[in-house]
Amino acid sequence: MLKIDHLTKTFGEKKAVDDLSLHIRPGEIFGFIGHNGAGKSTTLKSAVGILQFDAGTITIDGKNLRDEPVACKRELAYIPDNPDLYEFMSGIKYLNFIADVFGIPAAERQERIRRYAGLFELTDDLAQPISAYSHGMKQKLALISAWMHDPKLIVMDEPFVGLDPKASHLLKEMMREHCDKGGAIFFSTHVLEVAEKLCDMVAIIRRGRLVKVGTMEEVKGDDSLEEVFLELEAE
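The chain above was modelled as a monomer; its predicted structure follows.
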């Protein structure tokens, strides 16, 4: 679903991501683990076409991101760690705007808005301007917008930060359901417990370089990663 080959991204003289390769397959919840500043967000932004990268190849559902950026973006949804929404819009106008962008028919969009807004207990707030939303409400709205067009790939940067326990549990269920239908999830986290309970596969990045890929059991069983785990626990 998402294939990253030898990705390199520099900012000035600093290599934020250094020759990184990953393969996220259909049906997988893939966790991307690392401390703050390790290169997680840079990798995710490169993978969804927000950041230009210096070297490497990224393909989404078999399409090259450089050659077919629009076609690739039709297949994915991306949620940054701090969703930047159009705050002058109401919640319902924003969701309809997203539906217009992806050409979702009226009946389908209404059903999806009704369903997801109900699940996140946001229905009564959709008429309000987004500027009046709390951070948690904005995050819920961003999640609804990501699921609106039923993308094959969903990429999320620290999606559980700021969510209340009920919403976090709901998101985990939605992620599993999405992958059980053949989709894929690629998300970053610095919380090992989240990755351990949720992920099919994980990758650990440290100082821009990939240090381990495998199941959580394989990763936790690698004694050479003790220092990395201590860094994560300290955050």
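DSSP finds nine helices and ten strands in the chain.
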